[in-house]
């Protein structure tokens, strides 16, 4: 996957929708009518601060007049698949229509018969290595793993995984949750393993577990979920997440306290998330319309506004439809130029390794 700066134009955010409308096919009137007849879309695991989803959801509602029922915004990828399984045959409000999961969860969900195929009208501009050939799942956006630092507590923010072992960071370093249930947390452990010299796959994940076990034994690791509230209060003054989530959190805190967002110098790990429609979606047409919106230029730019690199970034950059102001808000391009994109087999190995070893090594259930 490559990042390009070709074709940049200086445009206002308000202007991009006009350009986008001419660049990509609109969904059919038949699909729009069928989705409106269903009247609702049920999402899951979409926090409003994640990737700009708050504005993206509102824009979809405003454009099509369809109610969006939002389930468990803080769920992890594994929770999403369980929600589909638990609601087979349920047409009520607890059955999700669409999923947004880590890359490795896409093939798993397909194998388990949890997804239905659908190819959006912009299908050809989605990179081939980021989509299922049959349309069961496809990449939506990506970012890189980083950590946030409360600068009131640590004015000189550490810049690497290695530095986090220093005694000055006692009772300071946290993960966002349990790496066995959340893709972003698993990838933080994976990145630590790469920094420790691990080979891609299970070896990196196991070396990452060893890294966090060492932090726990030295007293640097805090067994509390990292969050905006906890970083502000100093409970978890350093915690890991995707760069786009950390940047949105930094903006929300607005300097109270000041926060640095660091992409570690010793491991730049990128993560692709994928979008899919549940095989048991109660509102299949609304789900398809949602997908069409997300993969339109307008939807992709909504994610970019939330600091995520949309999967069609290169296509839109080459056509010159990305506002310069959105590009200027992103982290430095070199952060992405150094990024490693773990493959599906490597992520699958990592999932197996974290499930097998995290609990026993870290002393947790």
Automatic annotation (TrEMBL):
Keywords of this entry: Signal
TM region positions: none
Organism of derivation: Celeribacter indicus
GO molecular function (one): thiamine pyrophosphate binding
Protein's recorded name: ABC transporter substrate-binding protein
Signal peptide: 1-25
Origin: domain of life: Bacteria
Cellular component terms per the entry's GO annotation: outer membrane-bounded periplasmic space
Gene Ontology biological-process entries: thiamine transport
Record-linked PROSITE patterns: PROKAR_LIPOPROTEIN
A Pfam family assignment: SBP_bac_6
């Amino acid at each position: 996957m490559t990042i390009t700066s070709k074709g940049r134009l200086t445009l206002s955010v308000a202007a991009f929708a006009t350009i986008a409308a001419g660049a990509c096919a609109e969904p059919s009137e038949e699909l729009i009518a069928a989705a409106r007849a269903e009247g609702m879309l049920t999402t899951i695991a979409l926090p409003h601060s994640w990737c700009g989803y708050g504005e993206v959801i509102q824009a979809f509602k405003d454009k099509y007049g369809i109610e969006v029922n939002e389930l468990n915004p803080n769920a992890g990828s594994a929770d999403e698949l369980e929600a589909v399984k638990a609601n087979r045959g349920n047409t009520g409000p607890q059955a999700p229509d669409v999923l947004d999961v880590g890359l490795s969860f896409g093939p798993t969900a397909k194998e388990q018969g949890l997804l239905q195929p659908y190819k959006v009208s912009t299908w050809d501009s989605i990179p081939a290595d980021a989509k299922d050939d049959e349309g069961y799942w496809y990449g939506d956006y990506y970012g890189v793993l980083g950590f946030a630092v409360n600068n009131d507590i640590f004015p000189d923010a550490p810049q690497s995984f290695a530095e986090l072992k220093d005694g000055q960071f006692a009772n300071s370093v946290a993960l966002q949750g349990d790496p066995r249930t959340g893709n972003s947390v698993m990838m933080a452990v994976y990145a630590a393993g790469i920094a420790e010299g691990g080979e891609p796959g299970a070896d990196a994940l196991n070396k990452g577990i060893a890294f966090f076990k060492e932090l726990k034994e030295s007293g640097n690791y805090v067994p509390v979920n990292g969050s905006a509230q906890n970083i502000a209060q100093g409970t978890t003054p350093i915690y890991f997440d995707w760069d786009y989530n950390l940047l949105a959190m930094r903006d929300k805190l607005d300097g109270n306290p000041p926060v640095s967002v660091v992409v570690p110098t010793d491991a730049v790990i990128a993560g692709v998330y994928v979008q899919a429609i549940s095989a048991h979606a109660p509102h299949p047409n609304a789900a398809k319309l949602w997908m069409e919106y997300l993969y339109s230029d307008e939807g992709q730019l909504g994610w970019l506004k939330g600091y995520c690199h949309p999967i069609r970034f290169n296509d839109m950059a080459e056509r010159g439809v990305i506002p310069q102001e959105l590009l200027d808000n992103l982290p430095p391009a070199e952060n992405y130029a150094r990024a490693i994109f773990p493959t599906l087999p490597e992520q699958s190995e990592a999932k197996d390794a974290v499930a097998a070893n995290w609990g026993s090594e870290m002393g947790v259930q």
